[in-house]
Amino acid sequence: MKLHAGRHLIDLDQPRVMGILNVTPDSFSDGGRFLDVDDALRQAAEMIEAGADIIDVGGESTRPGADETSVQTELDRIMPVIEGIADRFDIPVSVDTSKPEIMRVAVSVGASMINDVFALRAEGAIDAAVEAGVPVCLMHMQGTPRSMQESPAYERLPGDIIDFLGERVRHCLSAGLCKEKLIVDPGFGFGKSDQHNLEILSKLNQFAELGLPLLVGLSRKRTLGNLTGKPADRRLGAGVAAAVIAVEKGANIVRTHDVADTVDALKVVTAVNRIG
Ligand code: 7PJ
Predict the structure, then answer these.
(1) Domains, the chain, ranges and CATH?
(2) 251 Cβ inside 6 Å of ligand 1
(3) For the segment 220-257, what is each residue's pLDDT rounded down to a tens digit?
(4) Closest Cα partner for 138 from 178, 179, 183?
């Protein structure tokens, strides 16, 4: 399986690591805009050095309870960073957004992939993605970031999520996106209890029925904190374990804050799986 992402070709015959680069006020606290961009580019360089295969740039917080960010604010945050990475490094940059305006601009300044936690459900998003012509990750979320953790409920897991993604895929195909450009993601933590997340992870192999590359993001998420009793910056071991389980159950791309350790862990998985 191969993904054509702009000038890049991503070979999914081995697991790939997507490094998270948040350009939000929570991650890059103070200082002027220039400083933020320098910080972000330094972090990107570090992740590339550590073996990242994709850098995912986001300018809007999607944490539970988060408010929406305006288009202009999001653009101001991410444009110089996307342009900077695309100019300086030979790595695909994905843009983490649900807004069609942002998708268009991000791709025009060098993003070669779209990562949409709203699975192109925003008005105009599918058209923007068709025009952009880059791969798109469709993620499942129940509710909205504001409300999603209030009382998530499912009839069947992971069936409900596979059904949702299958429907989104069909809708995107009928709107003109091609199958070779689609990636799916169960959306760990997005409208899911700890029990839901664990059930989805344990049955992740069932997503293979969609016949598309599978991306997962478990890095530092709350379920890992609840399991270990550790704060977000001390969930490395838990996150690496989750990434290894996900890849063993068929995940092709792992989205993580902790690139170096995840890359090491997946090297071991890949080496062992080459043998038997
Ligand atoms: C995900 C994401 C994820 C994809 C976030 C966080 C919350 N995009 N964006 N999948 N999570 N595709 O990183 O903790 O799980 S933001």
Answers:
(1) 15-275 (3.20.20.20)
(2) no
(3) 999 999 999 999 999 999 999 999 999 999 999 999 99
(4) 183
